Amino acid sequence: MLAPSLDDFSRLLGHLYDGHIEEDPYNSFLSEARAIIDSNFGSITMREPQGDDGGLLFVSSDVLQKTFVDDHDNPYTDKHYTSNLMTNLPWGQVVCLDECISYNQLESTELYRFCMAPVDIYHMLGVDLRNANGQRFSVRFCRPKTSDNFGEEERRFLGLLANHIQRAVANGMQLIQLDKERRLYSSTITRQSVGVITLDERGKVVTRNVVADNIIREKDGLSIVNGQIYLESASARTKFNSYIEAVALAQRNQEVAPTNALAVERPSGRPDLEILVKPMMIDKTVEPGHTPHMTVFINEPERSYEIDTRILMSLYNLTKAEVNLAKLLAEGANLDQASADLGIARNTARAQLRSIFAKTGVSRQSMLVSLMLKSVVTYS
């Protein structure tokens, strides 16, 4: 084993913590670690093959591809994974293969003949860890038969890395999941007929979607001036700015920020724009400046809509029963008609409506229908 310098170890950890964003995840880390411990094979098995699922393996080897995803062409992922000789190791404990099976027994196994010998791996060092969901994943390094077995120095080295590997993989999984959710939310919002603008703590525009761009381009009651939303109506502008300041003040004081709505007259004579100002969750200990602190939804009432139940439930934390009631109200039913259609008592419907008001920050049924619902529907 090569004795890594502090620079070497720092570079290795850098590769590890950036591993999730590589085209072939964790390959740079595995390759660097292989060089240090004189190994011809390294792998991180995120998901063991099981049945029709070929699993997920990240590999560093001179003779194998770097990533196996649901792969059934490889003899291990297709068949011989069931013969894995180092399964369910004690959490976080570094183990050598010869502690699990003698070398004489190893050489008589199909796993060795069909999976290990063809790629010249014989000695194996490994550790089992937990991912972000608490599920097991494994790290393995191997050497050819002509090499010495892994010794105490290599075991200690992998033991030092184990906690870092577990943290890096867990954090990487969470970041990937957050990015997927962000992309899904972004693509969903982009397809909507509602203008969406995010503002920072000073009310400056951070992002806006295509619909918002179209509304801004028309300059029909609303535009962007000096990076901020400008409403042509003086009274609406005063009210809107007070809503922005109220959200910013509440966030600075770590208080519950209000959700507010208003109608904005358009000089063209078209129906008023309907605007909803909704605060975003902010953690001052990690949020830098000029990041989204609040969202402004802009609705054009003349458009037609199809209500998306899942987005309503997600955005406002409504129950399915509350969404069903809100949809009927948005379609023009009054509370009596909606409760009859849903087969619930009027008092139950009233209780659900109060809950909807509380969750959305809207205080009138008409404003709920025209602003809250239409701010989360898809264009038909």
The secondary structure category is: alpha+beta
Give the oligomeric state of the chains in this entry, treating copies of one chain as homo and distinct chains as hetero. Answer: single chain
Look up the CATH topology of the largest domain.
Answer: Beta-Lactamase
SSE order, as H and E?
Answer: HHEEEHEHHEEHEEHEEHEEEEHHHHHE
Enumerate the spans where pLDDT stays under 50 for 5 or more consecutive residues. Answer: 375-380
Average pLDDT works out at: 84
Query: Which of globular, elongated, flat, extended, rod-shaped describes the shape?
Result: elongated
* Radius of gyration, CA atoms, in whole angstroms: 29 Å
CATH architecture title of the largest domain: 2-Layer Sandwich
The CATH superfamily of the largest domain is known as GAF domain
First-residue to last-residue Cα separation: 64 Å
How would you characterize the overall build of this protein?
By secondary structure, the chain is of the alpha+beta class. The chain has 3 domains: 6-180, 2-Layer Sandwich (Beta-Lactamase); 192-303, Beta-Lactamase (2-Layer Sandwich), CATH 3.30.450.20; 304-380, Winged helix-like DNA-binding domain superfamily/Winged helix DNA-binding domain (Arc Repressor Mutant, subunit A). It contains 13 helices and 15 strands. The protein has helices at 6-17, 27-37, 75-78, 103-107, 110-116, 152-191, 210-218, 234-252, 309-316, 320-330, 335-342, 346-360, 365-372, and strands at residues 41-47, 56-61, 67-69, 95-96, 123-130, 136-143, 195-199, 205-208, 222-225, 228-231, 260-264, 273-279, 294-299, 305-307, 377-379. The strands form 4 sheets. Strands 3-2-1-6-5-4 form a 6-stranded antiparallel sheet. β2 (56-61) and β3 form a beta hairpin. The longest helix has 40 residues, at 152-191. The model is unreliable at 375-380 (pLDDT under 50).
